[in-house]
Amino acid sequence: MSNDVFVITEHLDGKFSDVSFEMVGKAKELAKALGGQAVAVVVGGGVEANVFASDSTIQVDDAALSQFNPEAYGKVIEALVKEKAPRVVLFGWTVTGMDVAAWLSARLGVPCAAYAKDVRVEGGGVVVSCQAYGGKLTAEVAPEGETAIVACLAGSFPAEAGQGATAAEKIASPVDLSGLKMKFIEMVKPAGGDVDITAQTKLVSVGRGIGGKENIELAEELAAKLGAAVSASRPVVDAGWLPRTRQVGKSGLKVKPKLYLMLGISGAPEHLEGMKSAELIIAINTDKKAPIFNVAHYGATADLFEVAEAMLELL
Amino acid sequence: MNIVVAIKHIPSIADDLPVKGNNVDFDSVDFVLNEWDEHSIEQAVLIKEAVGGTVTVVGVDLIGELDNALHLALAKGADKVVKITADDPAADSHQQAKWLAEAIKGMGADMVFAGVQASNDIDGQIGPMIAAYLDMPYIGGTSAIEVSGNTATVSKEFPGGVGMKYSVTLPFVAGVQSAPKPPRYAPVSKVRQMAQTATIEKVAPTGEASAGLAFKKMAPPVATGHAEMIEGSPKEVAAKIVELLKSKGLA
User: Cβ of A291 under 8 Å from any chain B Cβ?
Assistant: First the structure.
C-alpha cells in the first residue's frame, strides 16, 4: 500500500475537463497531508497530457482507449489501482467517472464515497463530505480500509491548483484489450438550429415545478418580455417538455448569463454545476428549504405561476 | 429478450428529511421510486415492444411498502415483479446491489437496467455494482438502447448535448439516464387493477456486501450564503423582482 492519491482524469475530443484539474489540485493537498504523491492518471492516447501540476502523470497510451469506453477504461484503471495500491482514488462524479467509480468499488471490495463536495485528511484518515439527497443533506463519511474511492462533484475545488506541465510517463495498457464486449462506434454532436443558451445574457429557467409541457408557454412569454431565452433543469428535458439543447447542468450545458431567473428549480448539485456562476440568480420555489436558496442572490417562497403572471402584467 | 430492471426505493426529497443519529430518520420519511427508475422501466418496455420478450422488475423492499411501485411497473408494461424482503431501511447501495445481483443471477437476463443514479447513492449507484457482482460490463448515462440479435446499440449522453454510440454484446448492465420517450402514464385504475390481480414474487435477501463507510455526521449543508428573500404576496414579489431587474438594467 502507498499513500499516493490517484486522480482519474477525463478528456473529450482531446481536451481535459475542468474537474480533472480541480481533482489534481485537491490530490496535491491530500497527498501532502498523507505523505504520498499526487498522481494524475490519463487513460487514452492522442491527448496532450503534460498539463497537470501533479507529482507525476501516468498516461496509458493505446489506440483502443482514444475514446471513452467504460469496459476498457474500467479494466485499465482496475489493473493500475491493484498494482499501485494508492490510498485514495479520485474520480469525477460525472458521465464518465460514474461509469467506473462504483463498479471499481464493488470489484475490489473497497469503499466509494460519491457526491463528494470535499475530501480532507483528519487524524491520518480520509473524511469525505457527500452532498446527498438532492443537496438537502450533507453526509460526513470516513471510508474504511486501505484504499478509498471518492467521486467528486465538478466545481468543488479550484482548477488553477491542478494546472501545470508535469511530463507524462507513457505506458502500454496493463491489460489485454482484445475481446471487449463494448465497442465505441461514433460521436454524435448536437444538431444546430435551436437557441444557443450559452450565448444568452438572460435566461428564464424552468424546473419540475413548471408542472407540464402546457405551462412552458408562460415561461416563453415571460422570457420574450425580458429579452431572454428559456432554459431548463434535467427533469423538464427528460420529460420531453423542452429539447435537450435547453438543458443546464451536469449532463447539459454550462451557462453564465447576467440574469438567471429560476422558476420551480430546487437546486440539486447537478444543476448548480451548470449555472452557479451566473451574475444575478433569482429563484422562485414553493419549498422554503430548497437548496437553491443557499446559492441564489434573491429568492421568494411563492407560487411560480402567480409570480410569473404578475410579472407579465408589469413588464 | 429477457430484460430485468433493478429499482431503488428511496426517501422522498420533496419533503423535509429529518435526521436521527448520523443518518436519515427513516421512520419519518416517505419512500418513493427513484425518479430515474421510471426511465429504466420505460426503456425496457420500449425494447420489449420493439423486439418482443419479457420485462421483470425487481427491487429491495426496505420498509414493507414497495408493492405500490411494483404495481405501477406492471401497469406500465412490466410482465413480472419481484421483491426482496429485506426490511432494512438503511441498507446501502452495496448491500442492495448484492441482494439484487443474487436475485437476478438465476433469471437469465439478456440486459439489466437500473436508474443511472439515485439521490441517496452516497456509496455509489447500484447499476455498476450489480454489473461487477454479475461480471457483466456496465454503461451508464444512456439515452437510447436498441437491440438487434445479440447486440445492443447504446447511446450515452455527454455534457453539452454530445452523444456517443456504442455497440455492446449481450448480456450487459445499463444505467439509464433517460428513455428515448418520456415515461408513459399509467392510469390509477390500471394500477389499482394490478394491485388486485397481480402476484408479487417474494425472494429472501441473499449475500452480503457493505459500503465500508463510517457515517460520522449527517446534517443540512452549512450554507455559505443565503438568498435575500423577497417577502409578500405573489404580486408584491413580482413587483419587487421587476423593480430589481429595472434597477440593474435587465428589464
Answer: yes
Residue A195: pLDDT above 90? no
B167 touching chain A per CB within 8 A? yes
Domains and CATH numbers, chain A: 5-171 (3.40.50.620), 197-314 (3.40.50.1220)
Cα–Cα distance for residue pair B179/B44, rounded to 1 Å: 9
β-bridge mates for residue B4, sequence order: B56, B112
What share of chain A in percent tops pLDDT 70? Answer: 100
* Mean pLDDT, range A156-181, rounded to an integer: 96
Q: Does the B2-203 domain belong in CATH 3.40.50.300?
A: no
Across the interface, whether the CB atoms of A188 and B229 are under 8 A apart is answered no
Q: What's the ipTM?
A: 0.95
Task: Measure CA of the first residue to CA of the last residue in chain A; give whole Å.
Answer: 65
Touching A: B residues 121-150, CB under 8 Å: 121-125, 127-129, 131-133, 137-141
Q: Compare CB distances from A133 to B120, B160, B234 and report the shortest one's residue.
A: B120
pLDDT, tens digit (0-9, with 9 covering 90-100), for A7-21:
999 999 889 999 999
Chain B partners of A130 at a C-beta cutoff of 8 Å?
122
Q: Are the Cβ atoms of B139 and A314 closer than 8 angstroms?
A: no
Residue type, B81: V
pLDDT at B216: 97
* Complete DSSP assignment for B106-152: TT--SEEEEES--TT-TT--HHHHHHHHHT--EEEEEEEEEEETTEE
Report the residue from B39, B94, B237 with minimal CB separation from A238. B39
Q: Which of B35, B227, B238 sits opposite A299 (nearest CB)?
A: B227
Find the residue in B nearest to A224 (Cα): B251
Residue in the block written with cell 443474487: B102
pLDDT digits 0-9 by tens, A32-54: 999 999 999 999 978 999 999 99
My answer on whether omega of the bond before B171 falls inside 30° of 0, hence cis, is: yes
pLDDT tens per residue across span B179-235:
999 999 999 999 999 999 999 999 999 999 999 999 999 999 887 788 999 999 999
